[in-house]
Amino acid sequence: MLQKTKGIVLRNVKYGETSLVVTCFTEGFGLQSYIVNGVRQASNRGTAKAACFQPGALLDLVVYHNQFRNLNRIREFKWAHLYQHLLSDVLKNAVALFCIELLNKSLKEPEPNAELFYFAEDALLHLDTAAPAVTANFPLFFALHLPVFFGFRIADEYSEELPYLDLKEGTFVPEQPRHPHFLEGRAAEAVAHILKVLQPEELAEVRLTQDLRRSILQQLELYYALHLPEFGTLRTLPVLKEISG
Q1: What is the span of the domain harbouring residue 56?
Q2: pLDDT tens digits for 24-44?
């Protein structure tokens, strides 16, 4: 049955001579994989079509949807939003790819989750036009707010009495945990600050050094691995660290 939905491209893999298998997080059906025929033809038109399926692309789709099939087909596609900077700016693109990989590794089942879709879509749109100070803190914002949708959000209870962030438990605690997976000092304080941020523009007020951002991101990768089975490591994180330096 033909259905209309918006989709965020998560990844693509070459299929045959001219086609792609595309993984999308869709507004209507959640995580889905599609065959897109004839988009890798050696022509200007083919190149333009294939460009629509870059990770992070926001698309309007008409798809054949069968809930009992693991692989459906895309009938029609077009840009839902033409980015101004996200695909061409090296740092913004690295941040976007980090967010997309984090989302892709967190999604396990093809279940609709419209609120999560709107969060991810809104994040990409904000990142596209974000000021440099906002872009710098954006990976932390996305990584700290995404767990809300997967049931392992960090409880925002930081205080002088609860100064340690226990990454195993996802809570701020009064004493240093008896394991190495925790944040303290400025790192814990920064996490608490970003947990309170509701609009990305407010990230400009969070003053952090590059080294501290990198350290927190490394610990957040561990946090995801502790709470999501088979999470592994993020391939985009070393690239993001290198570019943001």
Answers
A1: 1-82
A2: 999 999 999 999 988 877 655
